[in-house]
Design a protein that fits this description.
This protein is about 40% helix and about 20% strand. By secondary structure, the chain is α+β, with helices and mostly antiparallel strands. The chain folds into two domains: about 5-105, Beta Barrel (OB fold (Dihydrolipoamide Acetyltransferase, E2P)), CATH 2.40.50.140; about 115-295, Hypothetical protein af1432, CATH 1.10.3210. A five-stranded mixed beta barrel has the order 1-2-3-5-4. Strands 6-7 form a two-stranded antiparallel ribbon. Strand 6 and strand 7 (about 215-220) form a beta hairpin. Helix 2 packs across helix 5. The longest helix is centred in the C-terminal third of the chain and has 20 residues, at about 275-295. The radius of gyration is 22 Å and the shape is elongated. It starts with 14 loop residues before the first strand and ends in a 13-residue tail after the last helix.
Length: about 350
């Protein structure tokens, strides 16, 4: 198959035809324009390719003419690029499924390129080898020398949509946070450098179990019920308990970093940061996520599909999330809710 038009290239006011993966599908009903006693089905969709995400609407008249399709299907759509509240939206008039034997996933799945990924892995290994504290070094080795865990760590996404939402994103995000923590520790000698760097490397380790990173990124059943903070805490605690004579003070401090790294209880942290190292990991994590978000303008595509209104004037408001902070508010160092939106 050929794909010449990508989401990043779409322009308002144009008619387009291109192939995408169905990342999210919500079927709803609304009153018929012709008879308000009749309910008609329509769809809200989120489409993806390797350049990003965009939301779309399929009205009843068009939907009736389309074949059945589901999430993770590859589809060719004809659509008009419109705006809703200043954000892009596809009004889809036709849709056909692409046969499996014609699909080239490289057009649709974003991932860290192999050369960059290999460099990141080398950097991670170098940082781990620089840890002088024997307890923390053993802890990191227990994770990163485990081939199953390390493979999951290097291939997982860091989020469903807000930041680093692609295969290899967790590796990229964790490395950046660790490097920033290392730099900060160099400027503040009162910080425990080994502790803050180890905490940075492991702060999101629970995401290897929270997310299923494939054609699309999905939250696992366990991830939805427990969340990566509690899952990561449990994973790190299990490894600590498997290391004979592990220092209990170091154990408490590294676990505190894991369990407090979202900063605020209302945003998922069972504890707020209460040590300098936990404070640094929280803010560097938050900073890297928000810088990524702003740099790549994910906000154009990433907000939650509206699930509450059946009014036609509102149903395409798929970019507007009641749970999101505005750009100005995010710059005031407020905790983010991305992992807890349920979608």
């Amino acid at each position: 198959m050929k794909k010449e038009l990508y989401i990043k290239d779409l322009k308002y006011g144009t008619n387009i035809e291109s192939a995408f993966i169905v990342s999210k599908l919500i079927k709803k009903t609304k009153k018929s324009r012709h008879d308000d006693s009749v309910d008609e089905e329509y769809c809200q969709v989120r489409l993806q390719d390797s350049s990003g995400l965009i939301d779309g609407i399929i009205w009843p008249e068009a939907l009736k003419k389309m074949p059945d399709f589901k999430e993770e299907d590859c589809v060719t759509v004809k659509a008009y690029v419109s705006q809703f509240k200043g954000l892009p939206q596809l009004v889809i008039s036709a849709l056909d499924k692409v046969p499996d034997n014609e699909i080239d996933n490289t057009f649709f799945i974003r991932t860290v390129p192999s050369p960059e990924k290999e460099k990141m892995i080398i950097e991670i290994r170098k940082i781990v080898s620089s840890i002088k504290n024997s307890h923390l070094r053993q802890l990191l080795d227990s994770f990163f020398n485990d081939s199953r865990i390390f493979n999951a760590f290097t291939n997982s996404a860091a989020a469903v949509r807000y930041h680093h939402a692609y295969s290899g994103g967790l590796l990229e995000h964790s490395l950046t946070v660790a490097k920033n923590c290392d730099m900060i520790a160099g400027n503040y000698p009162e910080l425990d450098r080994d502790l803050v760097v180890a905490g940075a490397l492991l702060h999101d380790i629970g995401k290897i179990e929270e997310y299923k990173t494939g054609i699309t990124i999905k939250i696992t059943d366990e991830g939805g019920l427990i969340g990566h903070i509690a899952m990561g805490y449990g994973m790190v605690l299990d490894r600590i308990n498997s290391i004979a004579g592990f220092d209990r003070t170091i154990a408490k401090n590294i676990l505190h970093i894991i369990i407090s790294h979202h900063g605020y209880k209302e945003f998922g942290s069972p504890r707020v940061p209460e040590t300098p190292e936990a404070f640094v990991v929280y803010h560097t994590d938050h900073m890297d996520a928000d810088i990524f978000h702003e740099k790549f303008e994910v906000s154009r595509y990433d907000d939650q599909l509206q699930e509450n209104s059946n009014e036609e004037s509102d149903i395409s408001g798929m970019h507007v999330s009641k749970n999101k902070k505005s750009t100005a508010q995010r710059h005031e160092i407020v905790p983010r809710q991305e992992e807890f939106s349920g979608f």
